[in-house]
Amino acid sequence: MNHYEVLRSALDRKPLFKVNNYNFILNPLTEQVPATTSQLLEEAAKALIDHMKIADYDRLITEEDKGAVLVAAVSLLSGLPFGMARWYPNQLADQVSSIFSCEYLSRGTLYICGINRGDRVCIIDDIISTGGTLIGMIKALQGIGAEIIDIIVIGEKIEYQGVKNVIQETGFQVQSIFKISVKGELSKVI
E strands along the chain, which residues? Predict the structure, then answer.
């Protein structure tokens, strides 16, 4: 199986569970149910790299919740360093933060680490739902003065219109490798 087939099988026809009235996909890539295999992680990283213009970036960035494992794998395979949008401050005076909201947390703050003014960045993430976390990262990166070149995600939950929300709020396009429906009892990769 190629990496797209491996990813599709990890995300398609998986049970859905609700958190704050939003459906999440019970799967090995983002929820570690069953445990994430090294092969799945490698294939996810390869799929992201297929969509990247590596020479155009100085750094990768993601949020530390579910994107951290992906950015580390992509960094190892691409040779690019990465920064992180953390959910807690490191207490450094020049740390840039952004308030955001998302489907499983009504409101929070992201703190950017490892990205500097003028860095050309690629934001990568696992799955976009409402787009709140990405919008928060974009605003924080703009506050730093970083140049956002690309935003690439493994999956887009189409019912929650996250890509549309990111475009409307920030003007940035989001590339999604898979579009996923989360209606009913099982996910459906389209």
Answer: 16-19, 22-25, 59-63, 82-86, 96-102, 105-113, 120-128, 147-157, 175-181, 188-189
Going from N- to C-terminal start, the domains of the chain cover 3-189
Residue with tokens 């996909």: 25
Distance CA 136, CA 130 (A): 12
Q: Is 78 helix (H, G, I), strand (E, B) or coil?
A: helix
In whole angstroms, what is the distance from residue 33 CA to residue 25 CA? 10
Q: What is the pLDDT of residues 44-61, one digit of tens each?
A: 999 999 999 999 999 999
Q: 10 Å Cβ neighbour count for 5?
A: 10
CATH 3.40.50.450 fits 3-189, yes or no: no
Tokens of 60: 């990768």
| SS3 state of residue 73 | helix
Instruction: Please state the φ and ψ torsions of residue 121, each to the nearest 5 degrees.
Output: -120, 155
Identify the three-state secondary structure at position 68: helix
pLDDT of 104 > 70? The answer is no
pTM summary value:
0.92
